[in-house]
Amino acid sequence: MGDQGTRAVPTGTEGIADSLLDAVERCGAPVCVGLDPVEDRLPGSGKPVERMRAFSFGVLDAVAEHVPCVKIQSACYERHGVAGCGVMDETIGAARDRGLVVILDGKRGDIGLSATHYAAAAFTGDHPADWLTINPYPGEDGVLPFLAGGNGAFAIVRTSNPGGDEVQSALLADGGTVSHAVARMVARIGDAFLGASGFSALGAVVGATCRSDAAELREIMPRQVFLVPGWGAQGGGADGILPCFLPGGTGAVVTASRSVIYPDGTGSWQENIQEAARQFADHVGTLTGHR
Amino acid sequence: MGDQGTRAVPTGTEGIADSLLDAVERCGAPVCVGLDPVEDRLPGSGKPVERMRAFSFGVLDAVAEHVPCVKIQSACYERHGVAGCGVMDETIGAARDRGLVVILDGKRGDIGLSATHYAAAAFTGDHPADWLTINPYPGEDGVLPFLAGGNGAFAIVRTSNPGGDEVQSALLADGGTVSHAVARMVARIGDAFLGASGFSALGAVVGATCRSDAAELREIMPRQVFLVPGWGAQGGGADGILPCFLPGGTGAVVTASRSVIYPDGTGSWQENIQEAARQFADHVGTLTGHR
Predict the structure, then answer these.
(1) Which chain B positions have a beta carbon within 8 Å of A170's beta carbon?
(2) Predicted confidence band of residue B7 (pLDDT cuts 50, 70, 90)
(3) Chain-wide mean pLDDT for chain A?
(4) Which residue from A minimizes the CA distance to B144?
């Protein structure tokens, strides 16, 4: 990790998954810390956007030596308007400067030209992200534009919220569930964007609290990197995450937000976050055989 | 419409659909103009964001007396970074100042707190939108936060792109398609947010090029206002839009972007847009019995 100030990820078309998994290996932990700055939990005083900026940078400094990547929750920044979007942009740049792979959690989902514009918003400009979360419900023409520039996309396949079952677990006439149909589409599209590691630039978001689903989705999507939210505060644990990995503990990245960035502890807020990130990486790294 | 500078929509929890349909009736046309400013089609010279701002305001001035509402494509503004987001914010305000109902086409889709943040981003601040397009794939907990503040949401139920069938038309074990399952969820959730007109603050996006689907979706969702994209440039016409309406020509709003904002014509660009908006409103208004 370190602070070399260089791009963590090469610019080859299919190298983006290789780079993410390389970063995981170097760190010895398939984990990601989510930055979800919420006004009433920010330390310090002053204007919310200023506190959000200081907090975001403080989190990055605290976690950079313990984890390979961060996930930046666009909603938290957007809610503070144009100034918030500016802080998000700066935060993406600061994360990249610290050698972290950056997943922008924007869950964008549109087709054709609009998808191309969202891709440009995420992946160009002064501070581009490496990956963007996307919603694949619109279909292939809502997915391909996000992969055109050599960047990566994590398609929302299975969410871990209580209401997620209503659509995602509906049974299909030819077997399986709606999330399986989405997974099959993701696997098919992603096969055109494989890196040297065999993993695709098109990954999948699969919630950690859907244990039985995870094993089936892993079977349908052997070449997708799984981004696995739900660890910690959302109730996901070892049971939920292990089926998301391939044998050997590869192919998935577990992400935690609140449990790492708002931890209990007796030190300063940054010391507490650093310790929470260290423990999170150690726990998941050990569980998955990386340590 | 006029330029009264007041909020087009009252602040009651369920009044948002009533207000939209009232605006349609006053105008005599269930139509919406989409603002999708794309750099290489902007008139004038200078910095892209400045031209985008001038174009956006120019379109609003040209269409305000002919249509009841506008749809602002977030992606087009976001791709110009923080400055673009600023122009979008100004454009929303300018549209409201001109008495137009504003649909922000952001297709946001997340759950819990993140959805709450996206709702705050769209519906609070100096220049709030009236409606936001959302992606309902995450389920009920990804929809309710957008309805909590008395605003409206159009859930993406059926898209009109070629790839839209792969997931949306997959057949379910208990009959119907995936888009029908989404529609049933939208209808159920929306029933708690009905206005005096009988229409819900939770509407549905249904593409104009899915004629057979539209009739079935209309049956499943009798209380949803349909936002119907695909008119004009995307190939949708009278055949596609009529099944989206209820008897009497109510309950839907047809939206056109490129065919109105980049029209052919012999006048100035603003005169051409004004004439295209007038013809669009007249055509759809007549087709649906409003004129």
Answers:
(1) 172, 178, 181
(2) very low
(3) 92
(4) A163
